[in-house]
Amino acid sequence: MEFFTRSGDAARVKTGCAVLGVFEKGQIAGPTGEIDAASDGLIARLRRAGDLPKRPGEVLLVPETNGIGARRLLLVACGKASSFDMKAFRKAIVTSVRSLRRVGTTDAVVMLAPAGADEYNRARHCVEAATEALYRFDELKSADKQPKPKLKRLGLYLADGRARSRANRGIEHGQAIAAGAEVAKRLANLPANRCTPTYLAGFARKLAADTPKMKADILNETQMKRLGMGTLLSVTAGTEEPAKLIVLNYRGNPGGKTTALVGKGVTFDSGGVSLKPPPGMDEMKFDMGGAAGVIGTMAAVARLRLAANIVAVVPACENMPSGRATRPGDVVKSMSGKTVEILNTDAEGRLILCDALTYARRFKPDAIIDVATLTGACVIALGHHLTGLMSTSDKLAESLLAAGEAAEDRAWRLPLGEDYDRGLKSNFADFANVGGREGGAVVAGCFLARFTEGMDWAHLDVAGTAWKSGTEKGATGRPVPLLVQYLLDNA
Ligand code: BES
Ligand code: MN
Ligand code: ZN
Q1: Closest ligand 1 atom to the C-alpha of 276?
Q2: Which CATH number goes with the domain that contains 83?
Q3: Which of 14, 108, 215, 434 has the greatest CB tally within 10 Å of its CB?
Q4: How far apart are CA 397 and CA 414, in angstroms?
Q5: Taking the model in full, what pTM does it have?
Q6: Which residue ranges have their beta carbon within 6 Å of ligand 1?
Q7: Is the pLDDT of residue 86 over 90?
Q8: Whether residue 324 lies in the annotated active site
Q9: Same domain, residue pair 42 and 151
Q10: Residues 323 and 255 occupy one common structural domain
């Protein structure tokens, strides 16, 4: 999809379809008013006839017009004018673009505007939402591929032409974020028999090869063994699929600050010997959602040519049961030297992340952020709306929360601390990999905190937000928008 801006008299904008907002109380103002006036009160007549769409999600296509530049109108219900915020705007864009899929036009111009938003953000979120609305994962379907939508060009109407350069910047950022989120979605949607650690490594290598200032370094199991990554290797022990430690190093600001991103890349989590129950186990192909988010973020960074230094470290492996698999009760030694008693082989994410966090120290990051589909407990705590954020740094936590707000990809802070950490006590090793069930998201955070002393570290638990279940089953691309926003703010 191509995006552009248009300004001037709304009634004269030449397009296959103008997308107009209709509010609950039927206010006709702004571009809607200009179009209404120029088309001899068309919209007021529709309102009197009771034909205007009412609830958010509803639309009315007016297939022919008179007296205006737009050949068609798509009227979109936007709810109350006062509560038409960025979130509602994004929903209206998704509804509009999905409706336009079934219309013959190749271009359209969006004339909706959320209350109080600047044109940079309006443009950016319009691009993100429109791209999201058109996303399909059909590369593994041989038949019934849906016909490609006719819509090729989507414009944003600017009431004030002077905002054009800001809007264009919003389009550029929106395209980069949307492209990064699509990378994350695709990698996460691919099943585990295709998206193996080796596949992820190959993808990262290609991204680096295509990107100036980005280098890929892929470590194999022999190299990991030499580094003493005993906790990571204990997770991959049961599978035939070779594990990889994927490192992407982007240096867009030599001499400047470095941010490290660490993403959990369990390409399939069966639970290992502590086998998961069958229902929903297929969704554990999404257990590399953190890795997908980090790699997607690097793809966005590459496209933006961000003036920042970012190192992505992705421990990638499978968690499978077998005669060689790690057993509950086994004690393993992490790269940091700390020993861990594995009481539950299904708490594997923290075991690969701790070695990756230790490895990331060699890049001397000013901030380190890990992203992981880490705990079912986080889904119980926050549901599917907010990502769980834990951090030992208030400053880092606050800037990540703010980034989530701005990017419409929100997180919620959970605590850490010794009351929770005590659950990890072990009689046989330095500590165990699990505590009790209560507060499980925080206990997992405490486990990771034991490997990040002295670092500005934050942990994003995306177990509830990286994918959707049910009829809309599929990856969401989160937290790519949050992470890119954080990097834009701190670059
Ligand atoms: N990948 C899972 C977490 C998960 C579960 C994410 C369900 C999304 C939906 C993780 O490896 C796991 O199995 N965690 C265990 C930890 C427990 C054994 C302490 C969990 O959450 O049950
Ligand atoms: Mn698990
Ligand atoms: Zn897992």
Answers
A1: 13
A2: 3.40.220.10
A3: 108
A4: 10
A5: 0.98
A6: 269, 287, 344, 346-349, 373-377, 379, 434, 440, 463
A7: yes
A8: no
A9: yes
A10: yes
